[in-house]
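Action item from last week, closing it out:
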Amino acid sequence: MERAANRSSFFIYLATSMNLDNLIQQFQKKDSAAFETLYHMYAENICGVINVIVKDAERSQELCQDVFVKVWEKSDQYDASKGRFFTWILNIARNAAIDEVRSKSHKNQKKNLPVDSLVGIFENSEDLNSKMDTIGLQSLLKGLKEKCILLIDMLYFKGYTQKEAAKELNTPIGTIKTRIRSCISSIRKNMA
């Protein structure tokens, strides 16, 4: 950790002793030392911004690497008259993070529970009914149709949108909306 901090400090010192504009010009000429210096100056902040959007530290690190590869490949597109260098990288990072969040694989990953969270449940499956009764789930779900239970599971526990649930269940969106209102109404009655 201390070695990494010393290395980072060295690159910041190098950049400040060298004019930032000159460093960027060297970078645009594909100077790998200039790229490495800029990377060490900005990577931590860029990765932090990506993580705020993606909310997954490991994936954010991967995206940060991808962003800097893209920055290297498109170095000739940076125009100092249009804004600061950091802002240019930041916009590329922000767009990459938003693309990631909108991707199907990211959405599917968020729908699935990690295996670790299920370990204790199946080991003590005989206690499952008593645990559910303790938190009152059985009484809330009493009398609900199977379709309601499935829909509640999809929308509230697996992160599906109404539109995604409609597509998955091959049911019109209007039917999904009506059905979920009816299901919630039934749960409210069970709560009373």
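Closing note: The chain has two domains: 2-109, 126-191.
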